[in-house]
Design goal:
alpha+beta; five-stranded antiparallel beta sheet
């Protein structure tokens, strides 16, 4: 009996000629895609949905996939993909392979990468924010037009909208991924805004570097004051800072490293680490049998990593160390938790 063929996305042999356009068996769409489609139509681009493209052999998927782009422009063989951070943040490899398959089938791919994701193709639009704004659409229309006209691609970047400014200090906002932190903008003497963050319940001031995280600028000690006094105190501090003072000197208040010990310089925390957050996870490679205590990790009985004394004073501890993959015993996941007692100026 011959292998059963799927009527949907793939088969043992291609169901259609390479590059053929066929009705999609996966016509689902999202609200954000509908907003983008409407704006592109208003800009005069004849985008369509619901069409799929027969692609060549996918060595990783062991199939001949029929892929459904978010939008297509049939006559010019240009397709548009909308990549929100929450669904594509961990799919860079899959999206890169998808680009390659569509390109081999004769199509040019234009991606709208939301949330500051890295570009994949030459025509991509990288939007630092995650909302569809006029500047985002203008950049996307320009990118699609270049692709339609056959011009060389250029990656277009769209900055996050600047918060409204009330005087030199903008209104503060919060983010779900950063507990006990407040994000705002400050107008420099040059007239340019700089994005900042108050972290760890008012203990520190940091530079907001988007996907690269929040980098330490200076201690604030606002946590010792009533919230009603924060604005006046913060404004007084910022007015005394020159433009050079808004360049971060280290990742943490105590320096560049979270861990000390022989392996400390080789271990980096993820950019999403929040000094005032409750937890953090990181993956490291170790040599030998691993044992650990709340402030130290050892391999074969030899100390390798110690939580920096200042991080320990801020309450950070090693909460768990487990194998990240049963087939890779040397790779472990370290779970950090802010469960210790605060001491010193962190109290």
């Amino acid at each position: 009996m011959s292998p059963r063929r799927s009527p949907y996305t793939s088969s043992w042999l291609p169901e259609h000629d390479l590059g053929a356009e066929v009705p999609s068996q996966n016509p689902a769409t999202s609200a954000i895609e509908q907003r983008v489609k409407q704006r592109l139509l208003e800009a005069g681009l004849p985008v369509r949905q619901g069409l799929a493209i027969q692609c060549s052999y996918d060595i990783f998927g062991n199939r001949f996939p029929v892929l459904t782009p978010d939008f297509v422009l049939l006559e010019s063989k240009v397709c548009v993909e909308v990549d929100p951070l929450y669904t594509h943040g961990a799919r860079e490899f899959q999206d890169t392979m998808r680009n390659a398959l569509l390109s081999h089938a004769g199509w040019t791919v234009v991606r709208l990468r939301l949330g500051g994701q890295q570009p994949i193709g030459a025509h991509d639009v990288v939007a630092e924010g995650q909302t569809i704004t006029d500047p985002v659409i203008e950049a996307l229309v320009a990118a699609v037009t270049d692709a339609v006209d056959g011009r060389p691609g250029q990656v277009r970047r769209v900055a996050r909208p600047t918060p409204r400014m009330h005087g030199r200090l903008s209104r503060a906002t919060t983010r779900s991924a950063y507990e006990h932190a407040y994000f705002f903008a400050w107008m420099l003497d040059s007239g340019d805004p700089v994005r900042l963050a108050i972290v760890d319940s008012g203990r520190c001031l940091g530079l907001d570097r988007g996907r690269s995280g929040v980098w330490f600028l200076r201690l604030l000690d606002l946590h010792r004051l009533p919230r009603k006094q924060w604005k006046a105190e913060l404004t007084a501090v910022l007015e005394q800072m020159g433009e050079a003072d808004f360049e971060p000197t280290s990742a943490f208040p105590w320096g560049e490293r979270f861990f000390t010990g022989p392996s400390g310089p080789n271990v980096l925390l993820p950019a999403s680490f929040n000094l005032g957050g409750p937890t953090c996870e990181l993956t490291v490679t170790v040599k030998g049998t691993t044992t650990w205590e709340p402030l130290e990790l050892r391999t074969d009985g030899t100390p390798q990593l110690q939580v920096h004394p200042e991080a320990a004073a801020a309450g950070w501890r090693i909460a768990q160390v487990v194998a990240a993959n049963p087939f890779l015993p040397r790779v472990v996941t370290i779970s950090l938790a802010r469960t210790g007692k605060r001491t010193g100026h962190w109290a």
